[in-house]
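## retry 2 of 3
previous attempt timed out at serialization; input unchanged, resubmitting
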Amino acid sequence: GERYRLGKGLNQDYEKAFELFAKAATGGFPPAMFSLAVQYQEGRGVEQSDAKAAQWYGKAAEQGHEAAQFQIGLFYEEGRGVEQDDGKAAHFFIRAANQGNARAQNSLGRHYHQGRGVQQSDEKAAQLWERSASKGNPRAQFNLGWCYERGRGVEQNDEKSAYWYAKAANQGNTRAQTNLGWCYLSGRGVEQSYEKAALWWARAGAQGHVTAQFNLGRCYEQGQGVEQSNASAVKWFAKAADQGCSSSMYHLGVCYGDGRGVKQSDAKAAKLVGMAAERGQKDAQCTLGWYCRSGRGVEQSDAKAVYWWTKAARQGHVTAQFNLGRCYEAGCGVEQSPARASEYYTEAAAQGCAASQFELGRLYEHGLGVPDEEDTATKFFSLAAYQNFPPAIRAMARAPGRGRKRTEAGCRDYWLSRLAVRSAENLRNLPHGAVLSCVLDVNGSKTEHWAIFDRENDQLLDYGMHRYKESGASYGYNSQRELGGTSAAWKVQAVSPEQFFYAWKIHEAFLVTWIPVDMRNLCHEAVNNARSSIGRRDKLKLQNQENTGAISEAMVRYWFTLKGMRKTSMDCSSTMSENKQCVIS
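## retry succeeded, writing output
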C-alpha cells in the first residue's frame, strides 16, 4: 500500500493503496489504520471524510500509534470529525508526548500555557517546549524564545530568547524571523544591527508575514538598515495593507498624501487613512480628523473632525486630545466649552504634551473653564517651558517671578536665553528648503520676516520681509548680534541660523514656524520661490508689492491654521509594529 501511495517501484495509485490499507487495517495493523486515516483526511483514493479519518486515527491511537495519537489530539482540539473537546485533545497529546513526539510536546505545551483541558502552568509549558525544541521543532523553538523573552515559566533571558528565535528563524518560521528582527533592531540578546533586522523582516515578508511586511516598509521609508526608497516602502505597505494591516493602510495613505513613492492623491490618501481609521488605528483616526477639518480628500466638516479626534482621543492619542481641546475652546464642530477643553488639555498634558501644558496654563491664568489660579498656571507653563516649548518660555519670561528664585532681570534673561537657544536648535532639525516666518517688533515697528533654511550649508538664505502697512523688500545681516540687540545691516547675503535668531530683540510677539517644501495646497507660491532660491543659493528679491502680500497672506493663514489645530506627527506611529507573538503556535 505504501509503495502504491508513494509511487516507489510501482505506478502511483491512491485507489489501490487505499484498498490495501483497508485490508491491513481491518486485520488490526496500527500503521495501516494510520495510513487509511490519512487517505480519508486528504481524500486520496476515496471520498474525503474527516469523520472516518478520526475513526481510524482513534483506533490506531488506542493501540499506541504515536503519530495517530497526535493526529486524533489535533482533531479533538479543532473539532474536526469529532465534537471539540480540549480534555480529550490533551489526553492524546500527553500519550504521544510521553513517546517523544515533538509535535505533540509542542501542542501539549500550548495547552498548559492556555489552560485548555489541563490546569494552566507556564512552567510545564516551557518544559515541554524545551523538550520539543531540542528535537528541532521550529514552533517549539519560537515558543521557547517567547518564554525567555517574557520570563514566562523560565527566568527572563534576552540571549536565550534570541538564540531560540534564531534556531526557528533559520528553519523558516516567519514569527521567529519577525521577532528576531526586533531583537536586532533593539539590540536585545544580540548586537544591535538595523541591517540584520531588515534582513530578517525581508525573509518573513517574502513569505507573507504581514507584520514583517509593514516593518520592512518602515525600514525603506526611514532608510534604516536598507537604502532609503519611498517606492520600496510603498510596495511593502501595499502588501501588508492587502492583508488587512491597518497600520500599513495608514502609512500607505500618508505616502499618497505626500506623494512619496506614488503619484500624489488626496482622494486615495483619505480613502486609505479612512479604512485604517474604521479599523481602529488611532493615528489614522487623528489624521482623518485633520482631513475632515481641512477638507483634504473629503468634504470639509468640523463635526466629523471632532468625531474622529474623539475616537482617537479615547485610545489615548495625545495629538487628538490636544485638537479636541482646541475645538471645545473655540466651539469648532462642537458647542463651545472651556471646561471640556481643559479636560482634554489635561489628558494630553499628563502624557507630556508641551502644547497642552501651555494651553492648560493659559486657561488657569485667565480662569477659562477652570479656576483663576496663578500658581497652577505657572506649574503648567514651567512644565512646557522645560520641554523648550517657545510659547511657554515666553510666558515664563513675561512674569519675572515664575519658575526660579532670581532677580527680575536675571529670571527674564534666563528664559529669553533659553528661547533663543531653543530657536537655533530647532533650525538644525528642519528639512532642506524650509520656509521660516518670524514676526518681530523692531524699534516699535512690527515686521514680518521670511528666510529659507539651506540644510546642506547650515545657513539661512534671505527671503524677504513684509513690514506691516509698508512694502516688502529683501534684507540680510552682516554680522551676529548679541541677544537684545536691535541693529541690522541691510545688505542682502546668506546668514547663519544663530544670526537670524540673535540679531533682533525678542518680544512677546515673537513667533516661529516652518513650512516644508513638499507640502501641497499651502503657500504654493512661497514654496516655488523657496525651491528657486535654494537652487540658486543666492539672494531672492521679491519682485513687487502684490507678490509680497500674496505670500505673506498665505503663510500667515497657514500659521494660524497650525496654531489652532495640529496634524498627527509622523513620529506618533514611526515605530515598527512590535510583533511579540502572544498567540503561541
